[in-house]
Amino acid sequence: MNQHLDEKEADSVLLSDVDKAHRPHTLATYLKFIIPSLIGFLFFLTPIVVDGKVTIGMGVLADQLNELTQDYLPAFATSLLVISALIALYTALFKPRWSQQDTTLAEIFTPKGIWLVLRLAGAIFATMILFEVGPEWVWNRNTGGVMMLDLAPVLITFFFFAAILLPFLVDFGFMEFIGTLVRNAFQKTFRLPGRSSIDAIASWLGSGTVGVLITTHQYEQGFYSKREACVIATNFSIASIAFSLLVSSFIGLDHLFVPFYLTVVASGLVAAIITPRLPPLCWKSDDYSGSGKQINESVPSNHSLYSWGLEQALRRAETAPSPSTLARSCLMNVVDILFGLLPLVIAIGTVSLALVEYTPIFTWLSYPLIPLLDLLQLPESAKAAPAMLVGFADMFLPAVLGKGIESELTRFVIACVSMTQLIYMSEVGVLLLKSKIPLNLLELLAIFVIRTLITLPIIALIAHTLVF
């Protein structure tokens, strides 16, 4: 994710150089575009059905690795977190020469301020959870136990394959090709580059975190402006089909999955149109990262959308990283996720779940929502209100709280809203805060609330008029 193009490479992929004389591309360039892009498409964007569940190739690999190693992954995760914390503490205290250099490795292992505190907390929490020592609010099965026994193994295996396979999708021209084809629709509807459609599709078929990874990668390389990256990451990192099936089944709505998912899609599209036009997203500038602007999706008059998309894909393929550079980038991505991201997920997720389990804070915060839910004619509004807000901690928690509600209508609304809120601190939120995308915690909270207030009435209206 820290891979940057040098000036020569950047010049070769700028789409503003439309005045360059057309030159034919070699067969090798076509193959360099087609083969890696096909691999990326097959693993990230091709839905497959395994044991009756819709998933993607990368998800199958992650699930198989998880099954083989699930008995050892919590201990492995704890070891990673402890090693990460010790190295970070060592560099903070003794400042070795390698940690002062401008390298990816130094950036990963020299967190500062709150990030250092969270990394240390992640290691301490993981140890307490593994051995069930210390305060129960840390290692309880419904708090730290969820993070270490349920979420951490999935994250390790999922991100391991995502980091390795992601370059096939984004570094060999596929983004340029698809982005050009759908540019008009995305520019007019969402004021975004066409290539952002890949982020949405990858999220839809794989995971919201995959979408965030793609967006972060593209922003750091200069393909998205600050505003575009913020909008895409918070409005298009949608829940996957597989996760949606899990939630609908858990909350007892699997017999309504088709109307449930169509409702999620419809309300999510409306939120994606409105939210970016409101603060804080509308305040973001269209400046680019240190790499500078790398793309302009304008189509020359002598090209069709298809021919220009292919031309840009081939140009991108020509400047794609070498196998050694690609391998190093993949390795650094894996190291960054395991040693940098995982401690933050464990620390923030454990505290968030403890607040839900042991304090009434979410109940108190949800009081203003009760009149709104009554206005929308949702039964058991007092029970439903906390479920509307607890999704900020973790996307699965609304289903946990809503499962005990008798009204199927209310459970339907809760499940749909949880799928459209998108911002949750146990995973996506931490990933965004750790990335270079310019979003802070208060902004993420504001976006979460805005999306909730936009989608809740829409979902309730659909539920009343079309589903029940």
Automatic annotation (TrEMBL):
The keyword Kinase does not apply. Keywords: Membrane, Transmembrane, Transmembrane helix. Residues 154-252 form the Nucleoside transporter/FeoB GTPase Gate domain. The chain crosses the membrane at residues 30-50, 72-93, 113-131, 151-174, 229-251, 257-275, 337-361, 412-433, 445-467. It comes from the Bacteria. The keyword Hydrolase does not apply. It holds the Pfam family Gate. This is Nucleoside transporter/FeoB GTPase Gate domain-containing protein. It comes from Terasakiispira papahanaumokuakeensis. The lineage of its organism: Bacteria, Pseudomonadati, Pseudomonadota, Gammaproteobacteria, Oceanospirillales.
